[in-house]
Design goal:
heterodimer, A: 336 residues, alpha/beta, Rossmann fold, 3 domains, six-stranded parallel sheet, two-stranded antiparallel sheet, 13 helices, 10 strands, B: alpha/beta, four-stranded parallel sheet, two-stranded antiparallel ribbon, 6 strands
């Protein structure tokens, strides 16, 4: 009986596991999912092997919800495999859609990261200088690790993707919209982002008026007024240029929008759109005044491209140019 | 790309309709000489310049971008160039973090009467970018990750 239900697969590539929790955040509605679908692959929750997927017919999986960015050979292998076996492939969550947190590694490169992680970080003890190898020989035989990429990619940069479901993680309401659309067959055109095309400001209940800010504040530096637009109070908020669907959850608790739902329709570069909005509210009439205000905003590129650096026009920091900038400069954590 | 063996940069110019674009016209009709490196795009105001345009120009192969508009206080739309000042300041900081040198993307002013200043600015910016060399998209932003195709091993 069960094999007459549509087959559902969920996979995590380079991700934190939050997307899996978001699926469980459907609460009792998860039972509707289990009722509507036959879950054939979900490594986080059930014991499936990659070989189980390899043994499937092409297109045997009806829907695959794929979360996580592509940052190593294993991620890419599974992206190709699940694309081949799935009728509908959904980039689920901000990492597979835009790169998100793993994508911030595109401000550095492989060598710089290995240097920091395996040698320089204060919590590292590595007297033998051991670093991961793709192959290593041990008495029991040869061990292999997936190759670690210099540049983190989005799922759509590796394989064709049918739909995108944004969010870090996607809200339960967004997941419901997507699952209902899939179950009912009323899907938007392929390549669409599933969800409303409005900005977070549209859903934010804070009072908005003419914006002029003299400086930026970090969230820990002030107690924001509970009713006034956070950007007007000097808190960085990406809501002006970020797709909604989340119900403006972060601004409603006094924290500026981080931008996790990504850009609206037709936007080529999420960071550039946030930049346009943020910069135009600076209370500056000269370049010097603008620079003085921006001195209170550390790591602007990190704020602007927090969720969509691999998906942006430049995709990563230039690898050969700009040697004057040390790699650590974009990090808020300075080496000790 | 090469001119007597030296590198000739490709610079995309975003010029304000009301001032710098006319300064370019004036420079042309006055037969002033300046390097033929600038690809002019007329915009109605520097306040219209979406930073996406700059990123797109660099991504599409420009070695630099020159934005030119009305002097502060002389904007046809009152304050478009002030918005440009603010956005440019944040854009430049962002580009620095992405490894793109300050000289590649510049903001300058030229009124409709300043053909000479326009020509001098293009010459100066061209020389600065020439010294930096090409942006070299293929090398700095390789499309395929070399470690994905080669069997490369750290050290």
């Amino acid at each position: 009986m069960s094999n007459q239900k549509p087959k559902l697969a969920l996979y995590w590539a380079s991700s934190c596991g939050g997307c899996e929790i978001a699926v469980l955040g459907l609460h009792e509605k998860i039972l509707n999912v289990a009722e509507a679908f036959d879950i054939v692959f979900w490594p986080c929750v059930m014991d499936f092997k990659y070989a189980d997927v390899e043994a499937m017919e092409d297109g045997e999986i009806d829907v695959c919800l794929f979360n996580g960015a592509i940052r190593n050979d294993e991620n890419a292998h599974m992206a190709h495999l699940l694309r081949q076996k799935s009728k509908v492939l959904v980039a689920f969550g901000a990492c597979s859609y835009g790169g998100s947190m793993p994508g911030l590694a595109n401000f550095a490169d492989r060598e710089a990261m290995f240097q920091w992680i395996y040698f320089d970080s204060p919590s590292t003890v590595n007297p033998d200088g051991v670093v991961p190898q793709k192959r290593s020989d041990v008495p029991e035989g040869e061990l292999r690790l997936p190759g670690f990429w210099n540049t983190v990619k989005t799922l759509a940069q590796v394989v064709p993707v049918d739909y995108f479901l944004p969010g870090c993680p996607p809200e339960a309401s967004s997941i419901e919209i997507a699952i209902n659309a899939i179950v009912s067959g009323e899907l938007p055109p392929p390549g669409s982002v599933i969800g409303p095309d409005v900005t977070v400001c549209d859903e934010c209940s804070r009072k908005k008026s003419e914006k002029k800010i003299q400086r930026f504040y970090r969230p820990q530096e002030i107690f924001p007024d509970p009713d006034i637009c956070l950007l007007e109070q000097g808190l960085f908020c990406a809501g002006i240029a970020t797709r909604s669907g989340c119900g403006a959850k972060c601004p409603s608790v006094g924290f500026g929008c981080r931008g996790c739902y990504g850009p609206n329709e037709g936007v080529l570069d999420h960071g550039a759109k946030i930049l346009t909005g943020i910069a135009s509210v600076l209370d500056a009439m000269t370049a010097e005044e603008a620079e003085a205000i921006l001195d209170t905003l550390p790591d602007p590129a990190g704020y602007l491209y927090r969720f969509h650096l691999p998906d942006s026009l430049l995709r990563r920091k230039a690898r050969g140019n700009g040697q004057r900038q040390p790699v650590g400069e974009t990090s808020q954590r300075e080496p000790a | 790309m090469s001119d007597n063996g030296t590198f000739t940069p490709v610079i995309v110019g975003f010029l304000c309709n009301w001032c710098s674009y006319r300064a370019a016209d004036l420079a042309g009709t006055s037969r002033m000489g300046y390097p033929a490196t600038l690809r002019d795009i007329r915009i109605m105001c520097t306040g219209r310049l979406d930073p996406t345009f700059v990123l797109r120009a660099l991504q599409k192969g420009a070695d630099g971008v020159l934005i030119m508009g009305c002097h502060p206080g002389q904007c046809h739309y009152q304050e478009g160039n002030y918005k440009a000042i603010r956005r440019f300041a944040l854009l430049r900081r962002t580009l620095r973090q992405l490894g793109i040198e300050d000289e590649r993307v510049q903001l300058h002013w030229a009124s409709a009467a300043e053909g000479v200043q326009f020509a001098q600015t293009v010459a100066r910016v061209t020389e600065q970018i020439r010294q930096l060399g090409p942006l070299d998209w293929a090398r700095n932003w390789p499309n395929e990750d070399p470690y994905a195709v080669e069997e490369a091993v750290h050290e």
